[in-house]
Amino acid sequence: MSVDRSYSPYEVIRAYHDRGMMKWGAFATGELTEAQNTFEKDKKDDKKIQAFPHHVVLHLLNQSFSNQVQIKVKYQSKDKLNEVYGFVSEFINNQVKLKSTDKIHFISIEQIINIYSKKNSCYLLT
């Protein structure tokens, strides 16, 4: 499809050829690149704490409770791995009470495999 531009006194306008959808490719590529960079940045920002012994897990949960830092807890429940985001609100017997935005979770401390936090300053173990 071409547009009649014979009305214009300027040669540049009369000879102009629209590239169609090609002109939007840079925007689409830019958005995709930005989304991938954000994903990679978020992945790097997660501070992974490897599976620790029972006393270390208790220490990390206590730090999270004291500093009121949101954590992601990965735990084994039956035959599947679960992840919960939330704040530690209480310790009851051998369980931790984790408050997420929509629910309260009671997780046995022995089931906890990993604890993740986006704030590196909370967990300074050497």
Based on Cα principal axes, name the global outline: rod-shaped
**What is the β-strand count?**
6
**Average pLDDT value?**
79
How are the strands of the largest sheet arranged?
Answer: 1-6-2-3-4-5
Share of residues in helices: 25-40%
- What's the end-to-end separation, in Å? 68 Å
Task: Report the sheet with the most strands, covering strand number, pairing sense and barrel closure.
Answer: 6 strands, antiparallel
Q: Report Rg.
A: 27 Å
Supply the number of helical segments: 3
Which structural class is indicated by helix and strand composition?
alpha+beta
**Poorly predicted spans:** 121-126
How large is the share of residues in beta strands? 25-35%
How would you summarize what this structure contains?
This protein is an alpha+beta fold and 126 residues long. The chain is built from three helices and six strands, in the order ααβαβββββ.
